[in-house]
Amino acid sequence: MSHPAFCGLSRGHLGELVAELAPRWVARCESGRRERRESNRRREVGAGPKYELVFTDRLLVTLVHLRTGLTHEALGVLYRSSTIGRAIREVRPLLADRGFAVPDRPGIRLRTLEDVFAYAAAEGVTLRIDGMETQVRRPRAGRPGRRAFVSGKRRQNTVKTTTISDGQGRTLWSGAQRPGRMHDQTAVRTEGIAEQFHRRPGVKAEVDDGYRGLANDFPDQVSAPPKRPKGMKAPNDGPVTELYGWREMKRRQSSRRICVEHANAEVRQWRPLQRYTGRRETYGETHLAIAALVSDRAAKRPTRYKTSTELVHVRATAC
Predict the structure, then answer these.
(1) 168, exposed or middle or buried, with CB in 10 Å at 0-12, 13-18, 19+?
(2) For the segment 2-11, what is each residue's pLDDT rounded down to a tens digit?
(3) Are 117 and 199 in contact (CB under 8 A)?
(4) Residue 249: CB partners within 8 Å, gap ≥ 6?
């Protein structure tokens, strides 16, 4: 069950998760028991009924469910347990609360937008921002807000999230969950992303056409694809020089921004985020849990060496 192809993690990564989350799970369980008893423990540690699944098995069940999308009934047959749903409900919030790994900074996690922008300002990282849509089940007829999830782009019921990555496609943050009908620019303003650019004037970002308003508000910080030259109504209309220049600038901006698309593609390798069939109330928790796990693996990728474009003299030359 711990094979990377089945649960999405290597054995080393799984061992790190067990060491990190096991104390939190035990503390949460003890806190729940104390609230139910409304008093301190009366029996010795270890007394009473035992769990069907130890924490390592509970973590494996949750990872397999997040990776493959197998139902609770199928996992119950595999693990010969009837408490699969309870195990997932206990472990999934622990995975979602971990935050996102920082490249070359083990032990540091980014949990909020403030953390991401502070990290970008301190390390000089140019952020890449993009949205991601995941198809969800259509709400039943008669429920209020049924049309709020219909995406104008995909013509399906979706949930949108915002992804922020660095220049090498490593996920630094993912969140800002909203219904599919809401525009990306609206999410930027409601989630406080624009406010972070006000507070961190040195942070720069690359975005697509969906965040055109953000680029207009912060022209010195946010780079969006160039606008089509005036008078060019059709894609091939206008002077050849202007047409070529516009296409070349658009291509260069796209090549700088494409890495965030790769970050979204990494998340979509996990089955629930290809098409989410669970309850929409738990989508945000599932998305955060998967994105945090993906960021762990991405942060361990070696940083690519950036060659200098400076020209230097090999030897002194006489004028």
Answers:
(1) middle
(2) 445 577 788 8
(3) yes
(4) 226
What is the distance between the alpha carbons of residues 57 and 54, in angstroms, rounded to a whole number?
5
**Which helix (H) or strand (E) segment is 164 a member of?**
strand 158-165
pLDDT digits (tens, 9 = 90+) for 40-59: 767 666 655 666 688 888 99
Query: pLDDT per residue over 288-305, tens digit each?
Result: 999 999 999 988 887 764
Average pLDDT of the chain, as a whole number? 82
Residue type, 62: T
Residue (of 273, 297, 274) closest to 287 by Cα position: 273
Question: Is the confidence at residue 156, as pLDDT, over 90?
Answer: no
> How many C-beta neighbours within 10 Å does residue 310 have?
5
Give 26's contacts (C-beta < 8 A, 6+ positions apart): 55
Question: Do residues 196 and 113 touch, judged by C-beta distance below 8 A?
Answer: yes
Global confidence as pTM: 0.83
Sheet with 205-206: strands ordered across: 171-179, 158-165, 127-135, 205-206, 222-223
Q: What is residue 10's three-state secondary structure?
A: coil
Asked if 179 and 102 count as a contact pair (C-beta separation under 8 A), the reply is: no
Q: Kind and range of the H or E element at 266?
A: helix 240-267
The CA distance from 311 to 307, in Å, is 11
The structure tokens listed for 17 are 């998760």
- Residues in contact with 200: Cβ distance below 8 Å, sequence separation at least 6, in sequence order: 117, 118, 120, 121
Asked if 170 and 139 touch (Cβ cutoff 8 Å), the reply is no
Tokens 């989410």 found at: 276
User: What's the pLDDT score for residue 53?
Assistant: 80
